[in-house]
Amino acid sequence: MIEPEMAFYDLEDNMDLAEDFLKYLIRYALENCKDDLEFLNNMIDKNLLERLNFVLNNDFVRITYTEAVKILTSAERNGNIR
Predict the structure, then answer these.
(1) To bridge 67 with a disulfide, which of 14, 39, 47, 63 should be the other Cys (CB 3.0-4.6 Å)?
(2) CA-to-CA distance for 34 and 26, rounded, in angstroms?
(3) Whole-angstrom distance, CA of residue 67 vs CA of residue 56
(4) How far is the first Cα of the chain from the last one, in angstroms, to the nearest whole number?
(5) Local confidence pLDDT in tens for the 82 residues of the chain
């Protein structure tokens, strides 16, 4: 969980910072740990690199806590949570 706190930042600024930080870390890993990530992609999780690139190439969707709970509750009822 990333919860950056900056002086004079509001919630929107903190969310922007968290998104930027997470994308920075993923980009760094893709550039500097490519062999390890390819190994994990081939041996453990065939969609790892695809998902990491998806995160880099898309903006984060922001929803309310209530909306998130509804999505999780619905997924649980439909058997989509592992």
Answers:
(1) 63
(2) 11
(3) 24
(4) 19
(5) 556 667 888 889 888 988 999 999 999 999 999 999 999 999 999 999 999 999 999 999 999 999 999 999 999 888 777 6
